[in-house]
Amino acid sequence: MLEDIKLFLGIADELQDPLLNLIIKDSEQRILSILNQFAVKNDTEKHKTIPNDLIYIHRDVAIKRFNKRNSEGTTADSEEGRSYSWEPSYLNEYLDIFDEYTKPAIRAGKGITRFI
Q1: What is the 8-class DSSP label of residue 88?
Q2: Rounded to whole angstroms, how far apart are CA atoms 47 and 41?
Q3: Which domain of life does this protein belong to (predicted)?
Q4: CB 30 within 8 A of CB 89
Q5: Cα 108 to Cα 6: distance, rounded to the nearest angstrom
Q6: 86, 29 Cβ separation under 8 angstroms
Q7: For residue range 46-58, what is the model confidence (pLDDT) as tens digits?
Q8: What angle do CA 48, 50, 55 make, to 5 degrees?
Q9: 29 CB contacts (<8 Å, ≥6 apart)?
Q10: Could you tell me which residues come within 8 angstroms of residue 98 by beta carbon, excluding any fewer than 6 positions away?
């Protein structure tokens, strides 16, 4: 994960590895917390690790958090003519995915009963 994020961000040295590792760990904890809230809501098993199907979310969230460092708590920032705006939460765009992912695989549908 660390090497993928460094490649995406264009970081070649190891100077920021401790910060990136902290962001990766914190992002994992936040994702698991939300994912397991949906698991409880959908009455399915909680996850101890992020499922392989959702690793891309872990990477995306870590990159977003790295890019927003030093601007925590703000929704917009401007620097040297460039302006940035962020969503209120790193995970908002993934909530529907977490909900669907934690729903039971077999769902009871509406049936029709006929009495003759």
Answers
A1: S
A2: 13
A3: Bacteria
A4: no
A5: 45
A6: no
A7: 999 999 999 999 9
A8: 170
A9: none
A10: 34, 35, 38, 91
One-letter amino acid at 63 equals I
- One-letter identity of residue 17: D
DSSP 41-104: HTT-PPPSS--GGGHHHHHHHHHHHHHTTT-TT-SEEEETTEEEE--SSTTGGGHHHHHHHTS-
* CB contact set of 78 (below 8 Å; sequence gap of 6+): 84
pLDDT level of residue 38 (50, 70, 90 thresholds):
very high
Instruction: Give me the half-sphere count of Cα atoms (radius 13 Å) on the Cβ side of residue 109.
Output: 2
With left for phi above 0 and alpha for psi between -120 and 50, is residue 10 left, alpha or beta? Answer: left
Residue 85's H or E segment, with its range, is strand 82-85
Query: What pTM does this model have?
Result: 0.75
Residue type, 96: D
- pLDDT for position 84: 63
| Count of Cβ atoms closer than 10 Å to residue 103 Cβ | 13
